[in-house]
Design the sequence.
């Protein structure tokens, strides 16, 4: 399909991740205003405001959710409380737990705070008690009782010399505790709902409290009485005092009196004058932002949950119920920076901008999020009123389209100069949720949409949209509509030449349309389940489809036949795109995997694992060097093509290996074994190390040379060598080298030095069983060799005994052969000649028998002469002569029967065989 010179992609690596870092709970900003501390399940995440990156993740070892935490005013000590009723003190810069102690509370801790000196810690529990801890001396100093229900708010007076603690619980009252006497000084009663926050003036004489009863109360702390009750007409979650002396005239502040900012259920910041109780400034909502309801007590998804002042940088930080962090400039209360703490399910994601500097994300909400990749700052786009389902970007990258469950489509434009995004057009016409959208490829002239109402629409875009900077939203009308399928239309795609349109449906079919009038050109049938995605090849007349049956198919546009099928996903394939000029495919599935395919070979080149849930979003950059994926696990992953980098790295590694191999050969030739062994270990080549050790052992005094070489190695090299020995010891061919190295280590290293080796326990566990097996095998070989020596000695003794018996028989004149009946008469003559020849042979060569006897031990010689092996007494010469005469008389042959003659012939043959190896002359018959 493409030229063979094109370099195929082989791998992608994670370049960056946008992960959820806040899922609700307490938020605190460091005193130096550089970091945001927030909870996320079992972790406390530390977000750097300048970069928008999470720099630390402080996680509980027991995997219990964190119920509360607090940071000391000096930004040094972080204390967390978990559901396990444990308090942990952390060195948060190193994510190290310094101390753990029991909270003593009988139920989880709901609130925590430090005093201005960073030495006293107050904890409010769900059991209605408040406990104070001396963090330096590490003991509990106070146990304050009397608060009914959960103590959800504790705060020290800013003047540490007063030693006063303010708290609030479920009875909607504010209690003031004297820490000198551990008694409640007074109870401030004004609110009729939960008190949400307390704000003290710098001199500590005035207190402003807020509650969900839609009022704020100003208190005189000297008289402990309320001086003003301000109705704010919304449930207030946080109150912040404006800094005195600052120029805030831009928001309507003209007097020098006390002013405060409220953040609540309406989702806007408002400025109030304490003396008159008037609202002097209300923040302007973003374009398209739904207006908050004053009657809402529970608040909606746009309401604020907390607010913090940043006096050093003249800013205010607010957190919304959607887990978004908003940083406002204080003089004007305009939005400066925005971070998304949690995005829920990612349904689609696309690169945006001429240089792919942004990504636009559709989450499980009506708002679109546009992230700037350089700073992770985010814009939230309001316009849709229901969940956004799909996105697509025009060719130049400055305009994109979206569709949602509100039955509408919208066109948005990014300003390259300011980076701001605004909605420029909206199209209404579908009667059900719009599940897919595709933009024109040649120029910004139209968009196509597919809906759950089974129809496909083509929308014309007016020429004025290309230069429209903002203002009103133009209405779009559908140029043509066609009922294309029998079920939901899941995907639509426009061909590269803007002449064809493909649609994939839940009815398991894919259809090809002419864009001019939406006339049907053909139907692709073959998938066993619904089609999730369709995509045109950028260079060939080929269409790719992915389905819930777990396969990806390639179809020819000429004959509508299936050209190739790619199978490898274990679940639905949700997205497929062409990369590398149409020679390869990227697919993502419900199994959380992203696969890279080569079309020519039908081969899955690489499987990428970075998500834990369905990967709905998949898109490639214009330069084809980046890829972005979005998953239902709320993670956005940016991948970089590392094919060229890996190829260069592999080539450099091969060159380095060749140089090192040559250097190793030179060192072995020069017999510089220490450097050779160290180089082989650094190459991490056990076989090469084994070859070096064999070379060393082949030298003279090989074991001593090996001992000296091994002892001069570094500690890490010895550990690596010990690991190699474990592997060598499993093979009988290499076990001797392994045992030699182990012997060198055990002989010359002390037990203390051996215990410093990493992985010593596992190495010993691997060495012991095979060493025992080798020991048993060598033991059996030794026994077998001893048996062979024993057999050899006995074979020599038995042979000598036979020679001695034969000589004795010949001396006695015994017949050695029995001839047949024709030659029976010659038996005596043959025997006499044989005996005589044997006697002459002994007389001629007497040393031959003596030499044989010299090899036999005295004990073996004692066995000669007796039939049963027992030693016989020597006979005198007279007795010998008498025996010889008797034998001569008995030797005379007697007439024998034919059976006796046959037995004689068999005996003659046996004797001939027995005498064959003996050192005596053969007697001719």
Sequence:
């Amino acid at each position: 399909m493409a030229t063979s010179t094109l370099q195929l992609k082989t791998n992608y690596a994670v370049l960056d991740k946008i992960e959820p870092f806040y899922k609700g709970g307490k938020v605190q900003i460091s005193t130096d205003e550089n970091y945001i501390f927030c909870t996320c399940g079992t972790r406390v995440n530390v977000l750097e405001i300048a970069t928008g990156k999470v720099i630390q993740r402080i996680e509980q070892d027991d995997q219990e959710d964190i119920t509360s935490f607090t940071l000391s005013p000096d930004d040094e000590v972080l204390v967390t409380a978990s559901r396990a009723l444990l308090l942990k003190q952390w060195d948060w810069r190193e994510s190290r737990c310094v101390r753990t102690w029991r909270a003593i509370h009988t139920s989880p801790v709901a609130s925590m705070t430090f005093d201005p000196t960073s030495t006293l810690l107050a904890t409010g529990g769900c059991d209605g008690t408040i406990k104070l801890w001396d963090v330096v001396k590490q003991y509990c100093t106070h146990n304050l009782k009397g608060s009914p229900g959960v103590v959800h708010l504790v705060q020290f007076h800013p003047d540490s010399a007063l030693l006063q603690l303010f708290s609030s619980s479920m009875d909607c009252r504010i209690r003031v505790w004297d820490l000198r006497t551990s008694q409640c000084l007074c109870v401030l009663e004004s609110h009729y709902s939960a008190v949400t926050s307390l704000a003290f003036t710098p001199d500590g004489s005035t207190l402003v409290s807020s509650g969900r009863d839609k009022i704020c109360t100003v208190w005189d702390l000297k008289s402990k009485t309320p001086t003003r009750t301000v109705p704010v007409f919304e449930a207030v979650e946080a109150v912040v005092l404006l800094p005195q002396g600052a120029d805030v005239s831009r928001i309507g502040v003209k007097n020098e009196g006390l002013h405060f900012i409220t953040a609540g259920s309406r989702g806007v910041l408002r400025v109030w004058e304490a003396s008159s109780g008037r609202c002097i400034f209300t923040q302007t909502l973003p374009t398209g932002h739904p207006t908050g309801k004053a009657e809402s007590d529970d608040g909606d998804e746009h309401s604020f949950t907390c607010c913090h002042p940043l006096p050093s940088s003249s800013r205010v930080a607010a957190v919304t119920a959607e887990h978004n962090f908003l940083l406002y400039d204080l003089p004007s209360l305009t939005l400066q920076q925005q971070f998304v703490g949690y995005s829920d399910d990612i349904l689609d994601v696309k690169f945006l901008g001429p240089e792919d500097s942004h990504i636009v994300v559709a989450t499980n909400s009506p708002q679109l999020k546009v992230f700037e990749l350089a700073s992770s700052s985010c814009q939230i786009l309001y316009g849709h009123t229901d969940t956004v389902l799909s996105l697509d970007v025009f060719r130049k990258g400055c305009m994109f389209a979206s569709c949602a469950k509100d039955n509408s489509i919208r066109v948005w434009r990014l300003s390259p100069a300011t980076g701001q995004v605004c909605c420029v057009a909206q199209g209404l016409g579908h009667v059900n949720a719009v599940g897919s959208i595709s933009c024109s490829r040649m120029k910004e002239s139209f968009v196509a949409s597919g809906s759950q109402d089974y129809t496909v629409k083509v929308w014309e875009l007016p020429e004025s949209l290309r230069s429209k900077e903002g203002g009103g939203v133009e209405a779009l009308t559908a140029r043509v509509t066609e009922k294309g399928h029998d079920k939901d239309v899941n995907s639509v795609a426009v061909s590269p030449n803007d002449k064809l349109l493909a649609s994939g449906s839940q009815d398991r079919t894919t259809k090809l349309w002419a864009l001019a009038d939406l006339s049907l050109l053909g139907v692709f049938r073959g998938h066993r389940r619904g089609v999730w995605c369709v995509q045109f090849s950028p260079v060939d007349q080929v269409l790719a489809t992915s389905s819930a049956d777990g396969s990806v198919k390639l179809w020819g546009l000429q004959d509508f036949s299936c050209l190739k099928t790619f199978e490898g996903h274990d679940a639905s394939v949700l997205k497929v795109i062409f990369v590398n000029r149409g020679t390869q495919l990227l697919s993502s599935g419900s199994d959380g995997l992203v696969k890279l395919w080569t079309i020519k070979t039908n081969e899955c080149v690489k499987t990428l694992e970075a998500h834990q849930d369905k990967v709905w979003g998949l898109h490639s950059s214009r330069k084809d060097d980046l890829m972005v994926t979005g998953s239902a696990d709320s993670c956005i992953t940016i991948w970089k093509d590392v094919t060229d980098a890996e190829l260069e790295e592999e080539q450099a590694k091969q060159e380095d290996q060749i140089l090192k191999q040559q250097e190793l050969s030179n060192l072995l030739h020069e017999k510089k074994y220490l450097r050779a062994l160290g180089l082989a270990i650094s190459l991490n080549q056990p076989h090469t190390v084994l070859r070096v050790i064999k070379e060393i052992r082949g030298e003279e005094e090989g074991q001593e040379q090996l001992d000296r070489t091994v002892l001069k190695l570094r500690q890490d090299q010895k550990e690596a060598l010990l690991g190699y020995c474990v592997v060598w010891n499993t093979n009988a061919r290499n076990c001797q080298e392994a045992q030699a190295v182990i012997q060198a280590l055990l002989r010359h290293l002390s037990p203390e030095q051996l215990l410093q080796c990493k992985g010593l326990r596992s190495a010993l566990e691997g060495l012991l069983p095979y060493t025992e097996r080798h020991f048993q095998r060598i033991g059996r070989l030794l026994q077998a060799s001893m048996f062979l020596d024993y057999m050899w000695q006995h074979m020599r003794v038995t042979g000598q005994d036979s020679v001695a018996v034969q000589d004795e028989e010949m001396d006695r004149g015994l017949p050695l052969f029995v001839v047949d009946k024709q030659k029976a008469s010659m038996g005596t003559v043959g025997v006499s000649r044989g005996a005589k020849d044997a006697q002459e042979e002994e007389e001629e060569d007497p040393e031959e028998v003596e030499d044989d006897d010299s090899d036999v031990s005295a004990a073996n010689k004692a066995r000669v002469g007796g039939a049963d092996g027992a030693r016989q007494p020597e006979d005198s010469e007279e007795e010998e002569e008498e025996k010889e005469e008797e034998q001569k008389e008995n030797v005379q042959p007697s007439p024998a029967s034919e059976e006796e003659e046959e037995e004689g012939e068999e005996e003659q043959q046996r004797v001939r065989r027995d005498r064959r190896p003996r050192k005596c002359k053969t007697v001719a018959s």
Summary: Residues 653-772 form one domain.
